[in-house]
Amino acid sequence: WQSGSPLPEPIAVYGAEFSPMALDFLTGKTVVGDRPKGPVGTLILAAWPPSPDHLHWLVAVGRPQQIYTLGGRAPLPAVPDLYAQIPHWLHLPEIPLLAIAQRHWVPPTAIVALLRQEGYPCPEIGPTATLSEIASALADWYDFLSSGKTQAISQAGNLMCTKAVT
């Protein structure tokens, strides 16, 4: 994307709170938030989603005409911080895995693995890897995305996916 080029609207900007880049180029544009609730013209990934599932969800819901990446990497939460949240989750009628995972910037399987590691079986959910295996896979995912091989992602959905320049 070149400065001054039109961006199809509305625009969703995912992960902007983790991006060191200023998003001043969106002034005057219709920005619908960070998680699309319906079709968007442009999806800007200010930070990489924490799993392929999150990326697929963003594309499936937003059905963007264009995707731009700023390539930011969200900080991973400290495992003790996640453990501290377990009592809060257990008081809910249902544990909203995707919402919790998005809030902590981890794949939903990390929340399930954490609960299982603490003795909560989550029998309605299939097998998952261990928390350390998920952390390793997350590091591999971010390394892949940072490698510049994102064109493979865009070809799968026939979407334009480039690194944004300002």
How far apart are the first and last residues' alpha carbons, in Å? Answer: 8 Å
- Placed side by side, the strands forming the largest sheet appear as 1-2-3-4
- Per DSSP, the total helix count is 6
Number of strands: 4
Biggest sheet: strands, sense, closure? 4 strands, parallel
**Helix/strand class:** alpha/beta
- Strand/helix succession: EEHEHHHHHE
Roughly what fraction of the amino acids lie in strands?
5-15%
Query: What is the rounded Rg?
Result: 17 Å
Which word captures the global form?
elongated
Mean pLDDT: 79
Uncertain residue ranges: 152-166
Task: Give helix % range.
Answer: 25-40%
Describe this entry's structure for a reader.
With 166 residues, the chain is of the alpha/beta class. 38% of the residues lie in helices and 13% in strands. It is built from six helices and four strands. It has helices at residues 52-62, 79-90, 97-104, 108-117, 131-146, 151-156; strands at residues 11-14, 42-47, 66-72, 160-163. A four-stranded parallel beta sheet has the order 1-2-3-4. Helix 3 crosses helix 4. The longest helix has 16 residues, at 131-146. It is elongated. Residues 152-166 have low confidence and may be disordered.
